């Protein structure tokens, strides 16, 4: 594992990336996810309110809305 090479590769990654954090997640808290998002050129960071490590279970509607917006749902 070469952290510098990994950071460089992530910075060169062109496709858009969605990073979604649960506001109450103790495993991967929003400040950590914010640091991850900074590694990507085209990152979108969403912190889903009032959810923890499984935001799709805590608030499925908000999770689906976020995913649909990111993926460009054509409904």
Describe the structure.
There is one protein chain. This protein is α+β, with helices and mostly antiparallel strands. Helices cover 45% and strands 16% of the residues. The protein has a two-stranded parallel sheet. Strand 1 (17-22), helix 2 and strand 2 (43-48) form a beta-alpha-beta unit. The longest helix is centred in the last third of the chain and has 12 residues, at 60-71. The model has no long low-confidence stretch (mean pLDDT 95).
Terminus-to-terminus distance: 42 Å
Q: Give the overall form.
A: flat
Low-confidence stretches: none
Helix share, percent: 40-55%
Task: Return the average pLDDT rounded to an integer.
Answer: 95
Q: Structural class given helices, strands, pairing?
A: alpha+beta
Reading side by side through the largest sheet, how are the strands ordered?
1-2
């Amino acid at each position: 594992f070469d952290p510098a090479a990994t950071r460089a590769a992530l910075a060169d990654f062109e496709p858009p990336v969605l990073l979604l954090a649960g506001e109450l997640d103790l495993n991967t808290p929003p400040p950590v996810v914010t640091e991850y998002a900074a590694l990507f050129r085209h990152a979108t960071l969403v912190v889903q309110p009032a959810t923890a490590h499984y935001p799709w279970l805590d608030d499925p509607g908000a999770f689906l809305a976020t995913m649909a917006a990111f993926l460009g749902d054509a409904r």
